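[09:14] KT: can someone run the structure on this one? pasting the chain below
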Amino acid sequence: MIPNSHKIKPRWLKKRFHSNAEYKEMRGMLNKSRLHTVCQEACCPNLWECFSRRIATFMILGAHCTRNCRFCAVSYGTPDPPDSTEPVRVAMAVQKLKLSYAVITSVTRDDLPDGGADRFVQTIKEIRRKTPQTLIEVLIPDFQGNAKALRTIVNARPDVLNHNLETVPRLYDAVRPEAGYRRSLELLKLTKNYDFTMTTKSGLMLGLGESSGEIRETLQDLLDTDCRLLTLGQYLQPTPTHLPVERFVHPDEFDFWKETALEMGFDGVVSGPLVRSSYQAEKLYRIVSV
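[09:31] RB: done, structure tokens below
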């Protein structure tokens, strides 16, 4: 039997990479601007596709995370102090790229009193100042349950607030040992309590050993928070030291879960083996904003 960590990827997970002028220009601009993207730091399989279309998910607050989640490729370690120039640099990149939709995420910063919430707020403000027409989605950590920190972000009025559950509750201790399933659900629920008009979004990885019943129950938990946008993607093991893939989910099954989620009450779903939190983010948002 082939060990899980050495399973051969099926054909539907294999993508060809062809460098082009747009991709090179995007990499160069990000390097020159000293900006991080989750696309690069988390080894996203869609990096070439998105960079070639001049799309990126900006990752603020450095490149080192204070948590060591067993599924994530972002570097774990002691982070640098926040850079006060970062919000302006992100806004300038959004302006230069002429983005109609910007996605901002961050490493988890448990070392900061507010978890980095103010840096999200400042980034939102700078983008609105430079390109007021740009729609903004924030993909936020749980702030260790700090309701005040969450409220400051909600008050900054991003167009979408995204927070990923990532997996089913039974697997949390193995996948996200420093997070909490109920804490994440409460964050999404509180967001709607603070502003019932706020569009909330979440995502799950499949292939970690979850059962169909557990997926369905987790989707219902999300709906109970009034979350209506959903992403579903295949978990891929970034290094041999991370959790192994338990199974590769066939594209037909992702189609099944998309239809199931829509039937259950979600307004918009992007589901597929290579789908990640920010994949087709603007397209998904437009479904509920028309």
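[09:33] KT: thanks! Confidence is low (pLDDT under 50) at residues 1-6.
[09:34] RB: yep, looked fine to me
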